[in-house]
Amino acid sequence: MSRTGTKLDAKKVNSELFTLTYGSLVSQLLQDYENVEDVNKQLERMGYNIGIRLIEDFLARTGSGRCYDFRDTAEKIQSGFKIFLGITPSITNWSPAGDEFSLCFETNPLTEFVELPDNYSNLKYCNILPGVLRGACEMVQMEVACWFVQDQLKNDNVTELRVKFVKRLEDAIPAGED
Amino acid sequence: MTIHNLYIFSKTGTLLYYAEWNRLNKSGITREEEAKLMYGMLFSMKSFVNKISPLDPKEGFLYYKTGKYTLHYFETPSGLKFVLNTDNASQNVRELLQQLYREVYLEYVVKNPFCQLNEPIQSELFKVKVDELFKKSPLFLSRSL
């Protein structure tokens, strides 16, 4: 291995290659599973597995501490999108209790060359993103639920990702002397 | 200045990695027992510091010092714990631990899909890089005290 620790500048990585790679991943899954629901589930699971690792990269790069409140979390998630996908979704539609918000994407690098065929209308094409958020938040002791409410691929104006705070996970206590 | 030894714990308390350089005094118990003891102490120390703090504890427990050595503690928001024992003269150990997290753990464990995140680290490359990082640090002098 010749990894020297020098990082590729995240902004300079060609996003088209990423878009197309993701596209081929989704189309492979559609071939492997007959059911679109299963594909949605697999994408979410893959995202989760990415998220639990990606959070370390985020923390090491930004040096950020734990979140004070959920608004702080929202801003950190926003900056995460900036770092890893080069986009800045807007944070909107806070619930009155302050435990739910939406991320609105005007552009989405994952769907740049994508059109959904009619028979796949149930496919959540970008379902990897909710998985990533869920995995990443879980690693910092937060359980969140995450789903799409609007999708540009389904002729909505924006893509809207809803994030809901579920509960705070407790620190693990040390294993006792068994 | 001297670096004695290093422990890395996962957020559930598994000893992910242990390395030692200048350790003259052996604890006389097995590595597993020692790790459990260490983790238990850290856990208690952390909650003690947070409870007893008269102000908002912010980062909480940072280090403790005895007549002979200093134990430095660095915990990431994701619950990884880096523990490094040095002599009392060492400075900027926190930066060194952050560097260990950023440049070694992240690069050679998190970005290595064959490394499971909650299991002891087996990667040879990781071992080599940890050793390199500490040996090139100004804190590292292999002079026995």
Question: Please, could you describe this protein's structure?
Answer:
The complex is a heterodimer of chains A (178) and B (145). Chain A contains four helices and four strands. Chain A is α+β, with helices and mostly antiparallel strands. Helices cover 41% and strands 16% of the residues of chain A. Chain B has 145 residues and is an alpha+beta fold. Chain B is built from three helices and five strands; from the N terminus they run ββαβββαα. In chain B, strands 2-1-5-4-3 form a five-stranded antiparallel sheet, with helices on both faces. The N and C termini of chain B lie close together (9 Å).
Condensed summary:
Chain A has 178 residues and is α+β, with helices and mostly antiparallel strands. Chain A has helices at residues 15-32, 36-62, 70-85, 128-139; strands at 90-92, 100-105, 142-150, 159-168. Mean pLDDT of chain A is 87; it is low at 1-6.
What structural class do the secondary elements of chain B suggest?
A: alpha+beta
Strand content range of chain A: 15-25%
Estimate the global geometry of chain A from the Cα principal axes: globular
Question: How would you write the strand order of the largest sheet of chain B?
Answer: 2-1-5-4-3
Q: Provide the β-strand percentage band of chain B.
A: 15-25%
Attribute tags:
heterodimer; A: 178 residues; alpha+beta; four-stranded antiparallel beta sheet; 41% helix; 16% strand; disordered N terminus; B: 145 residues; five-stranded antiparallel beta sheet; 19% strand
